[in-house]
Specification:
Blueprint: H1 2-16, H2 30-44, H3 49-64, H4 67-75, H5 80-94, H6 96-108, H7 112-131, H8 157-178, H9 184-204, E1 211-212, E2 217-223, H10 228-231, H11 234-250, E3 255-258, H12 274-285, E4 288-296, E5 303-309, E6 317-319, H13 333-336, E7 360-362, E8 365-371, H14 378-386, E9 390-395, H15 405-420, E10 424-428, E11 434-436, E12 442-445, E13 452-458, E14 461-462, H16 466-470, H17 473-500
Parallel strand pairs: 2-3, 3-4, 8-9, 9-10
Antiparallel strand pairs: 1-14, 2-13, 4-5, 5-6, 7-8, 10-11, 11-12
Helix pairs in contact: 1-2, 1-3, 2-3, 2-8, 3-5, 3-6, 4-5, 6-7, 7-8, 7-17, 8-9, 8-15, 14-15
Length: 501
């Protein structure tokens, strides 16, 4: 019993410690070590591989997504106990994928080198790919993000996307388990493989996959810092509008972007004359202005989480397509709709904007917008990015208070810049408002939880990265081929032993 308790405690602690591998701590080298602890425990106790994988992942996702409690209890005002239980629901579901990966890894082969160098990284990667789209998907916390953008392995993102980075992390962890079990020759070969992987990825970071296009443009990124507890209050509405209008009036730039739901009411319900006032400011300063604001659908039957180009005739817009379940739409409302009577969660029934939306033409640039956690889904951004020179994300993470959510979200945006070779403009309510370079590095960053306008100069880019040409398919097919190879090899070995026996 003491040994079992020790192994379980080590597993839970290793999972919880993954918090420090991601932003804001960014200790990227921790992730292969912590994952190797899980693999080592499963190698020693293969009968408990599922439980070990589940415990590690449950601790990891609970630690990394503790900010869910902030949104449910502190902001949505759900009582503490139900909020705590609800906070555990997402990690409890997500942990199934690593648990199954561990289970199948130990069952596919008893040979450590096959188990941890082939089956394990392939299964872990496929699991994270599956959870990125199953039930609308939730890719946050994928181990590949821990390497963005400081790690040498970040150089793989432009070629294979975030799932390729995940595979490299899992392979590195598996190698740490196998190394002590190999003879000297095998050990040297595996060390050479790791050096080639990490060194080659580092060299790829210096490759520029896209090219400059047009002239640099000046951009003003607004950060209003409106607390979520006040954001939708009618008493604060006038203050919010005045704050952002003053920001617009104080700026001179080619383009200005205001964050998600900067104006917390429908476009059609704005105070009379406000749109024309903003348009006059834009015309006088020759400044394009894009503002995050809800708007009704064209048929009036629904509403959209949109970014509207106020400075353009006809008010063209981008509307969020990948909505947040339980936040922006209610799945199975006939079963769980009742819980919303206990929460303060406005606009929880958005309509989808549609997958094929063209970039907005602003300040001579083609700007592909995405709203809030849409930039979690790399493959979905490939289409819009193909025709765009800039990416732009508008967000409101005030839902999660002063937590690590905004830092983690910034890291997701960095991955999207790496994958597409394009700068990412981020305008947020409370943070992290930033300009991200095409190589994933942060050029400018506004202090979180402050009211300010971040002024930057950005250069548009054109061209396609290898990842934009092929998407996730090569990594997924490659993982499937590895698993098939392991199964064929084991079948061949069993058949040979049967014949010789």
């Amino acid at each position: 019993m003491p040994k079992k308790f020790f192994y379980l405690a080590a597993c839970l602690l290793a999972g919880a410690a993954t918090l420090f591998a991601f932003a804001p701590y960014r200790l990227f080298w921790l992730m292969p070590l912590l994952l190797a602890i899980l693999a080592e425990l499963a190698e020693r106790h293969p009968r408990h591989a599922f439980a070990l994988g589940y415990g590690w992942a449950l601790a990891a996702y609970t630690a990394n997504f503790n900010w869910i409690y902030n949104s449910l209890h502190d902001v949505a005002q759900l009582p503490a106990l139900p909020a705590a239980l609800a906070t555990l629901l997402l990690p409890a579901y997500l942990a199934l994928y690593p648990a199954l990966a561990m289970l199948f890894a130990v069952r596919l082969s008893e040979r450590p080198w096959l188990r941890w160098l082939l089956a394990f990284p392939a299964l872990w990667t496929l699991g994270e790919w599956l959870r990125s789209w199953m039930f609308t998907g939730f890719p946050w916390g994928a181990i590949g993000y821990s390497q963005i953008a400081e790690s040498p392995l970040a150089g793989l993102a432009a070629i294979s996307g975030i799932h390729g980075v995940t595979f490299a992390v899992a392979l590195s962890a598996g190698a740490l388990v196998v190394l002590p079990r190999l003879a000297k020759g095998g050990r040297l070969a595996l060390i050479a493989l790791l050096i080639s992987l990490w060194g080659g990825a580092q060299l790829l970071k210096s490759v520029s996959w896209t090219q400059n296009t047009g002239q640099p443009v000046s951009v003003a990124l607004a950060q209003g810092n409106i607390p979520q507890s006040l954001k939708w209050s009618p008493e604060v509405l006038q203050l919010t509008i005045e704050r952002y209008y003053q920001m617009i009036g104080s700026q001179r730039a080619d383009l200005m972007i205001l964050p998600e739901t900067a104006f917390p009411l429908f476009l059609e319900d704005l105070p009379p004359g406000l749109i024309s006032m903003i348009q006059r400011e834009a015309k006088a300063k020759q400044m394009d202005i894009a503002i995050g604001i809800p708007r009704r659908t064209d048929d009036g039957q629904g509403y959209l989480n949109a970014v509207v180009a106020f400075s353009q005739p006809g008010l063209p817009y981008y509307a969020k397509n990948h909505l947040v379940p339980f936040g922006e739409f209610i799945p199975l409302p006939q079963f769980i709709g009742w819980i919303y009577q206990y929460m303060n969660m406005p606009l929880s029934g958005f309509s989808r904007g549609g997958p094929a939306q063209a970039p907005l033409t602003l300040a001579g640039q083609k700007v592909a917008f995405n709203v809030c956690y849409e930039d979690s889904f790399g493959e979905e951004l490939i289409g819009p990015a193909r025709d765009a020179t800039l990416l732009a994300n508008v967000s409101n993470l005030a839902w999660f208070g002063k937590s690590s959510a905004m830092d983690q979200h910034l890291q997701l945006s960095q991955a999207r810049s790496l994958e597409t070779g394009r700068p990412m403009l981020r305008s947020t309510n409370t943070g992290m408002t930033a300009l991200i370079n095409p190589d994933g590095s942060i050029q400018s960053l506004a202090a979180p939880d402050t009211e300010q306008v971040l002024k930057v100069e950005v250069q548009g880019r054109r061209g396609l990265t290898p990842y934009m040409r092929s998407g996730n398919l090569p990594v997924i097919v490659g993982c499937a081929v590895l698993l098939l190879s392991v199964m064929v090899f084991e079948w061949w070995q069993r058949r040979r032993m049967t014949k010789t026996g």
